[in-house]
């Protein structure tokens, strides 16, 4: 019928226009969010798999949207990367993390390094080295109090430049971790050349570990090669005690995941600094 036809036409017309409009709105909102700093960090602990000792807190950004509430990073990080806004967002994240560590230090809390996610775009277009150095200096922090997490894909970028950048960061005393390991295409020889400190194995592999027999084979191979190359291994997305036990049996060094704690706001993270995790 006529109305069906019109409805169908309008559906397509709207879906294109709406998507463009939605994207524009989102871009505008993100610009405003950057100006007004509507971003907050939540922190998720990473602990020693044997002793439960707290090793680090990973900073995970959320957009505290005036109408929508806390928006998860995967719904705005990709747009921030596409538009280059990730540079300013990255600066805000770093600044907030360093300010937080400095506050915890002032309160004489037993601080641990805060681990910061850095996008490939920041590596290729930003000045990571100087940004980090300046922020640490501004807050009078030792470089060992921050760590950088980068995905395998960002290390594959402009090889020589990325490699020089990583070397400089490491020389400053900043630890470097490969994020989502196993989802990209880096070879362990590349990792050794780049002298990474640790591997964070993607949570897909943690979940397969106790589900599929091949899962254990994969982990065992990673473990032995990483250790031989002087890197420690972190399992991401540990949700069950069964997974913890399997990881311990494989001598996986550290774990992170809901089994230990979800990412929490800074006030709760402050309590985690003083907590003993009993595994
Ligand atoms: P990621 O770096 O791999 O961070 C881990 C993600 O897994 C977090 O999601 C965390 O909440 C979630 N997670 C932790 N433990 C578990 C678990 O046991 N089970 C399950 N199912 N999930 C778990 P979140 O906070 O939504 O962050 C998503 C991604 O957004 C991060 O993945 C990271 O790639 C990116 N991201 C977050 N903050 C930043 C940032 O400040 N800068 C950049 N460039 N990216 C960020
Ligand atoms: Ca990460
Ligand atoms: Ca990860
Ligand atoms: Ca090493």
UniProtKB/TrEMBL annotation:
Highest taxon of the lineage: Bacteria
First and last residues shown, out of full length: 596 to 874 of 885
Native source organism of the sequence: Noviherbaspirillum saxi
Name this polypeptide is given: EAL domain-containing protein
Residue span(s) of domain EAL: 23-277
């Amino acid at each position: 019928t006529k109305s069906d036809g019109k409805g169908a036409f309008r559906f397509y017309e709207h879906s294109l226009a709406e998507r463009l409009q939605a994207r524009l709105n989102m871009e505008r909102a993100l610009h405003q969010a950057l100006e007004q700093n509507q971003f907050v960090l939540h922190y998720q602990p990473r602990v020693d798999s044997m002793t439960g000792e707290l090793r680090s807190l990973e900073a995970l950004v959320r957009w505290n949207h005036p109408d929508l509430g806390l928006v998860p990073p995967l719904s705005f990080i990709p747009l921030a990367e596409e538009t280059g806004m990730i540079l300013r967002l990255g600066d805000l994240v770093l600044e907030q993390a360093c300010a937080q560590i400095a506050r915890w230090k002032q309160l004489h809390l037993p601080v641990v390094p805060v681990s910061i996610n850095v996008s490939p775009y920041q590596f290729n277009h930003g000045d990571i080295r100087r940004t980090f150095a300046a922020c640490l200096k501004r807050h009078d922090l030792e470089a060992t109090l921050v760590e950088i997490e980068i995905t395998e894909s960002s290390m594959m970028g402009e090889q020589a430049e990325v490699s020089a950048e990583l070397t400089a960061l490491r020389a400053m005393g900043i630890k470097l971790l490969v994020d989502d390991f196993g989802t990209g295409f880096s070879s362990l020889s590349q990792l050794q050349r780049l002298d990474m400190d640790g591997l964070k194995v993607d949570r897909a592999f943690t979940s397969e570990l106790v589900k599929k027999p091949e899962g254990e084979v994969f982990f065992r191979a990673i473990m032995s090669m990483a250790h031989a190359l002087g890197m420690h291994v972190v399992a991401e997305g540990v949700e069950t005690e069964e997974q913890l036990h399997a990881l311990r049996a494989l001598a996986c060094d550290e774990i992170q995941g809901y089994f230990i704690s979800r990412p929490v706001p800074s006030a709760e993270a402050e309590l985690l600094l003083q907590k003993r995790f009993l595994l």
